[in-house]
Amino acid sequence: MMVDIKGLTKKYGSFVALNNLNLTLDEGVVFGFVGANGAGKSTTFSILATLLSPTSGDAFINGKSVVREPKEVRKLIGYMPDFFGVYDQLKADEYLDFYGASYGLSADERKVLIPQLLELVNLTHKRYEYVDLLSRGMKQRLCLARSLIHDPKVLILDEPASGLDPRARIEMRDILKHLKSMGKTILISSHILPELAEMCDEIGVIDNGKLIAHGNVAAIQEQLQGDKRVIVKVMDQLEKARAFFEEDPYISSIEVADGKKEISFNYRGKTEDQVNLLRKALLADIPIYTLTEEEKDLEDVFMAITKGADEA
Amino acid sequence: MMERFSNPVLLKELKLRFRAFKSFSGLMFYLAVLCIFVAGFLLIYTQFSGTSFFRPNDSFTMFAVLSVLQMGLVMFMTPGLTAGAISTEREKQTLNILLTTTQSSTQIIIGKLLSSVAFLILMLVAGLPLYSLVFLFGGVSPSQFITIFLLYLVTLVAIGSIGIMFSTITKKTIVSMIATYGAMIFLGGITAFFFFIGVSMEQMSMGMSTATPFSPITYFWASINPGALMVTILYPEMANSLESVVGISLPIWVVYLIFYILLTAFCLFVAIRKLRANMKTNR
Ligand SMILES: Nc1ncnc2c1ncn2[C@@H]1O[C@H](COP(=O)(O)OP(=O)(O)OP(=O)(O)O)[C@@H](O)[C@H]1O
Ligand SMILES: [Mg+2]
């Protein structure tokens, strides 16, 4: 077990930001931390990064307590905050050199490492550029390189893709995949859920300081597969199509979008039933030209789960 | 082996400081003030004393005034250099990252302090050529000169530590600046004011009784005032008249040294303790 969070609670005055959070992660796992604004993701990560002390509870990185052995924990983690600044008047390689020295690496070690890290994050061409002149995405990647300089076992990345354009996001994801292949345990928080789905082994959903779901991506998605939504597009005869679908026992919550000539409904039947339905529809002369299933991505999972927690 | 003793924060700060134009312009400003002063002093003395000589006595006066001026400049610049040491990193959001490195809090605080002290020492050294003029004309002993420089050092390290402490415990640089300048003005000015109040009260009561004076509080105010110490170093006879007023013969530099060293230690201790979230006691 690489990360072990035990009963973590953080209060700001009477406000409970984290409420008895428990979580364990094995080595090499990529964990996606999902939650609405103010749910407590950054608070959790700050405690793991030894920047904030918990009100109660503890967390262990490779068996070292963040409360009692913060110095040991710092050797094990690479941390990237949600908001960070850079020193003006340092060049990219000097920036990395400073942090390398801060982790006690020798000048020779740094000399070897820095070009490798810059290569990893595709910043070799910016090596002698002043850091504050780099673009947001480049700074983000440089900060990631910085968090890797002491070869930590665990990476704690607080919204590493925020503020990046789609291309930069894909680049960031490729770098993270590479790090995963190196066997690092990675914790990522994000608002942008679909991008977490394909990258993460496990997802945790936090709401109001409580971990309300934790499992692998498929398991969490499966919880919601019961009521998939099907979208049918017809060339014309919208009313006839609607009447047809209303008769099917597996169909509920029909909605008709007149302008788009589109009918959508919840479908509870199995795949064979769906084949039959489609066959019957064509025989009944309904001019269907496409039938699609709405993607159940993490966004929906997230919405569904947090809504459930609110009602409880 | 070298890495064990090197201080990354110190090295980085020095690099940044010497790259910044404002360091260069600050140094130039400082030297300009000193040069204008010395030139003006020489001009006035040779023009208006009626002689075209510059006597050792005048040279000593110049040394005295130059020393006080330099002390004033150093005291004025130290808060500006140190009161933002930690808080600007907090404001620029570089502090969190720095605190997750394996450097100890002591290393970070000492690195910040030493980089500011190094710059101030550079300033003092840059002003040395002007002092050579004083030596050229005579009237000043090297030991006096060295004592004055040690006094600068003790004082600027103490004020620097106050700046670092406020910078660590306050969220905003502006608050830290105000607090540090406040502390500096207290040490440099308010203590003198309290001292003079003490002296005048002493003189009033002296008319009534014949007892030998004894006023440790007045003595204390004088002994922690950098200006007072400087005057007693430059003019030893002043130490005697102070003794006759407060009735304590212990030289004030002893108290000064103890007070400023304790102050430095206290401020650095607080800064080191407060830099990071205190994990163990906050549980
Ligand atoms: N220093 C503080 N004092 C008081 N409340 C705080 C403090 N820091 C955070 N909070 C509160 O704690 C809660 C959790 O904040 P946190 O930053 O962990 O949320 P988050 O999940 O990272 O949100 P986001 O997605 O917006 O980054 C919020 O309601 C926030 O207002
Ligand atoms: Mg956050």
UniProtKB/TrEMBL annotation, chain B:
Coiled coil: none annotated. Pfam families: ABC2_membrane_2 (PF12679). Keywords: Membrane, Transmembrane, Transmembrane helix. Signal peptide: none annotated. The chain crosses the membrane at residues 27-48, 60-86, 113-139, 145-166, 178-197, 248-272. It comes from the Bacteria. This is ABC transporter permease subunit. It comes from Ureibacillus galli.
